[in-house]
């Protein structure tokens, strides 16, 4: 480093007439400092960039990973099909949840319009001619295999009868039913007969809300009515693919004349 005397001498030699030009000195000083300041600023900027750039890349990478995971989950869900709510299962092929035969026609409701059974089983009720006010009128109900194949399985011990008029349910079989299944084996065209009874009375909605109907229900007036039958049949599964779901067996209505 030059001494003070050398600096003074330098200043005198550089300036004309030996006088010190303060402005010139300051200009030369600034000129010598400027490159160092610029270099320091550049170095400082690079240091900041060196810190910020990795952070920016890291954040962008994290967002991309999250979106990719979401997209993959969506693609997987689409491939697997709709998600089912917990506890929800699937019914067997062609099977439908329904009420049992004794609950398909309720008092005061519309007479159910049931499709014929796929196996060809049909229930027919003999026509009835009786006095108004009669009780426990005997009725024969015939189960016939109208299909082309032999039918085997089990069914309700008694068919459920429905007394109706103009499509409105007036009464139906009610009360305790024996928990005994009846086995059947019907060739095409074969049939079996049930003996049961019915009462031409008028029940109400409140009767279906109780274990048994009210006593002394009002009698149906003389006139023309209809009677139909239904029962549950469980076919015998012949192989692993066979269905053992209960089938509803019904048939046409038959005339009832009260006089």
Describe this structure as you would to a colleague.
This protein folds into 2 domains: 4-78; 101-258, Immunoglobulin-like. The protein is built from 3 helices and 11 strands. It has helices at residues 4-14, 22-80, 205-208; strands at residues 121-125, 128-130, 137-145, 151-155, 160-165, 168-172, 182-186, 191-198, 223-235, 247-249, 254-258. The strands form 2 sheets. Strands 2, 4, 5, 6, 7, 9, 10 and 11 form an 8-stranded mixed β-sheet that branches. A 3-stranded antiparallel β-sheet has the order 1-3-8, with no helix packed on it. A hairpin with a 2-residue loop joins β5 (160-165) and β6 (168-172). The longest helix is centred in the N-terminal third of the chain and has 59 residues, at 22-80. The model is unreliable at 33-96 (pLDDT under 50).
